[in-house]
Amino acid sequence: MSGSKKPFSTFRLLSFDIYGTLIEWEKGIIDALSPIRARLPDSSPLKTDDLALASLFVKHELRLQSTNPGRTYDKILRDAYISVATELLPPPSSSSPENKESVPNAETLQSEGVALAESIAIWPPFPDTIDAMRKLKRLGFILVPVSNVDRDSFGKTLAGPLAGLSSRLSGSAPFFDAVYTAQDIGSYKPDLRNFEYLISHAESQFGVQKHQILHVAQSLTHDHVPAKQIGLESVWIARGKDGVSGIGGDVEALEGRTAFAWRFKDLGEFADAVEAELQK
C-alpha cells in the first residue's frame, strides 16, 4: 500500500467494481459450479477448496475476456464454466461404463453454463453493501460502476440483489449516476481501456477531472494493478480473511504493482471512514 491518502473531500466521483466488491461474486460462482464439483472424485482437493476452485474459474475467465473482448459477460461466464468442466472432468468417451452417466456431454455442459450465467441475477450483495452505498450517496458523491459485465446482466442485479439501493429514493431517479460496462467499452478489466473510458467519460459527463476520481474495488488484479498503471487513486476493499480470495489476486505476489492508499475490510468500514472525515 503506497498511495497519497488525500482527504476524501478532494474526490467528487467514486467509481466501483461491482462483482466481488458489492456483490458476492465468489459465492455465486462457487454455488453455480456445484454440478462440476459433484462429479469430482472424493480425492480431488477442489471438492472442498473454494479458493482453488474460484481461482481456476478466474484463470479461464481472464483468458476468455482477453481473447474475446467483445463477447458479452453472460457468454464469458457460460464458456468459462465449460472450460473448467473440460479441464477437470474426463470426456464421456474415455470414462468407464459404470461412470459414464456422471460425465456430462456437450449439451449438458452448455445448459449448465447458461444456468451459471443466469444465476448472476441472484448473486447476493454483501451484508454491508446496501447501507454503505446509501451512506456514500447521502454524502454527495457521484457514484459510477465500472464493471466487467453486460448491460442486461447488470440490470438483473440492479432489479434484484441491489434493489434496496433505490428503495428510498424519491421518484424514479436511478441510484447510480452512470454505469460503464465491459459491453459499453468493448474490453474487460484489467485492460487500461476500461479506465481510460472512465476518466474520459467522468470529464465529459460530469466535469470531473482524473484527480477527483477515487476507484473502490476488491480485485487487485482487475482493478488496483491497472489503477496504478493509469494513475488513479484507489481504495482496496479487502474482503475475505486478510483480503485473500479466489478472484482478486495475492497482495504479496502483487507487491509493487498496486498503490491503493486505503485498505478497509468491507464497504461499511470505508463508508464510515468517509463520513467521519467529512463531518469533522
Automatic annotation (TrEMBL):
GO function terms (MF aspect): hydrolase activity
Coiled-coil regions listed in the entry: none
SUPFAM superfamilies (alphabetical): HAD-like
Name of a matching Pfam family: Hydrolase
Residue stretches spanning the membrane: none
Keywords: Hydrolase
Gene3D superfamilies the record matches: 1.10.150.750, HAD superfamily/HAD-like
Protein known as: Haloacid dehalogenase, type II
Organism: Talaromyces atroroseus
